[in-house]
Design a protein that fits this description.
single chain, alpha/beta, Aspartate Aminotransferase, domain 1, Aspartate Aminotransferase, domain 2, 2 domains, seven-stranded mixed β-sheet, four-stranded antiparallel β-sheet, 14 helices, binds 4'-deoxy-4'-aminopyridoxal-5'-phosphate, 8-amino-7-oxononanoate synthase activity, pyridoxal phosphate, pyridoxal phosphate binding, EC 2.3.1.47, 8-amino-7-oxononanoate synthase
Length: about 400
């Protein structure tokens, strides 16, 4: 086992050793982080639903009705009425025939990609796609072609060149997690049609966020019915846990039969399912929550830009503030923390060298006063470090 010590030492030498040095008390806009009261600008709880009283009540009620655990996989004895109700709700929300819930977004991507592609197939994947897509591609053993970020010109050339494969799958994040930018979906839909490929979109950061009803990227671009496989997670804006895939009846029946991460894992507990279900009700009942999110994102993005910061995204609640140098990014994050703002510094290898950034995420539940306090801290830290 010496190699473990050696590997850990090497990670430390290269400054990329990870540990759990951050402990939070909740996902509220203002919370305790490592014992210090902070404005939390790093949560994917975009709509603030993890704190919503209706979701909390739904979880409590579900536990009192169904107990704490599912006790089996969906296909054996862990399938409760509420699991099916959630899947029907997601299908309705996404405007698809059917939907399937996995235990996480990670498992949804892994299970779906490996079920759809094998050795005789080819996958085209954006270079900034999430790790769970990358791992799904690897595990599938399909030929994988990575195209430069959002570069549909290169993608088209790759599609033209790759003949002789059984199936072709194009897979992309809808909103990219580290950059907060949107995939060029209209063009991807065209290319998928033109070159007879299946398009799969990971809406982890778009579910509950983008589109008129918050239904995600397809709704945002007016492409409902055009994207064959829509994947997403219930762990971010939806305030719960779990992944989903929405699509045709055939696709979902196929995944129930072929997706190993669905078949061989115990179902999510009814309380988790109940929170997800309640979140979709809340989303519909209180459209103001989403409005607040977009207003807050606009306010913070505009404020930071006016101060002279470079922001990498234009329209999502992920607001990456470019710092460039890796050490300066960490100093920036530390300085912000000392000023009562928690937001993580992201460095290589997570992002390319020279593009280190502070990854700000905003929530619907941040008050104007909290955002102003955060902006003030950014101005102070940015000036101290010579970033602005
Ligand atoms: N896809 C993307 C784009 C993500 O950002 C994430 C979460 N970081 C996932 C998938 C995985 O989702 P989950 O956290 O529900 O496993």
């Amino acid at each position: 086992m010496e190699f473990i010590k050696e590997e850990l030492t090497s990670l430390k030498q290269y400054g990329i050793y990870r540990d759990l040095k951050t402990m939070v008390e909740s996902q509220a806009p203002r919370t305790m982080v490592n014992g210090k009261k902070c404005i939390l600008l790093s949560s994917n709880n975009y709509l603030g639903l993890t704190e919503h009283p209706d979701l909390i009540t739904a979880a409590r009620n579900a536990i009192s009705i169904w107990g704490t655990g599912a006790g089996g996989s969906r296909l054996i004895s862990g399938n409760f009425r509420i699991h099916e109700e959630l899947e029907e709700t997601i299908a309705h929300f996404k405007n698809t025939e059917s939907a399937i819930v996995f235990n996480s977004g990670y498992m949804a991507n892994m299970g779906t990609i490996t079920a759809l592609a094998g050795k005789e197939d080819i996958i085209f994947s954006d270079e900034l796609n999430h790790a769970s897509i990358i791992d799904g591609c690897r595990l599938s053993r399909a030929k994988t072609r990575i195209y430069p970020h959002k570069n549909t010109g290169v993608l088209e050339k790759l599609l033209q060149k790759s003949t002789g494969y059984r199936r072709r799958l194009i897979v992309t994040d809808g909103v990219f997690s580290m950059d907060g930018d949107l995939a060029p979906l209209p063009r991807l839909v065209d290319l998928a049609e033109k070159y007879n490929a299946v398009l799969m979109v990971d809406d982890a950061h778009a579910t509950g966020v983008l589109g008129r009803r918050g239904a995600g990227s397809a709704e945002h671009f007016g492409l409902e019915g055009k994207i064959t496989i829509q994947m997403g997670t219930l762990s971010k804006a939806i305030g719960s846990t779990g992944g989903y895939v929405a699509g045709s009846h055939d696709l979902i029946n196929y995944l129930r039969n072929k997706a190993r991460s669905f078949i061989f894992s115990t179902a999510l507990p009814p309380s988790v399912i109940a929170t997800g279900l309640e979140a979709f009700r809340v989303l519909q009942k209180y459209p103001r929550i989403r409005e607040n999110l977009h207003n807050n994102a606009f306010y913070l993005r505009t404020g930071l830009t006016q101060m002279g910061f470079t922001i990498l995204s234009e329209e999502s609640p992920i607001i990456p503030v470019l710092i460039g140098d890796a050490n300066k990014t960490i100093q920036m994050a530390q300085l912000l923390f000392s000023l009562g703002v928690f937001t993580p510094g992201i460095r290589p290898p997570t992002v390319p060298p020279g593009t280190s950034r502070v990854r700000v995420t905003v929530m619907a539940t941040h008050t104007r006063e909290e955002l102003d306090t955060a902006l003030h801290a950014f101005a102070q830290a940015g000036q101290t470090l010579g970033v602005i």
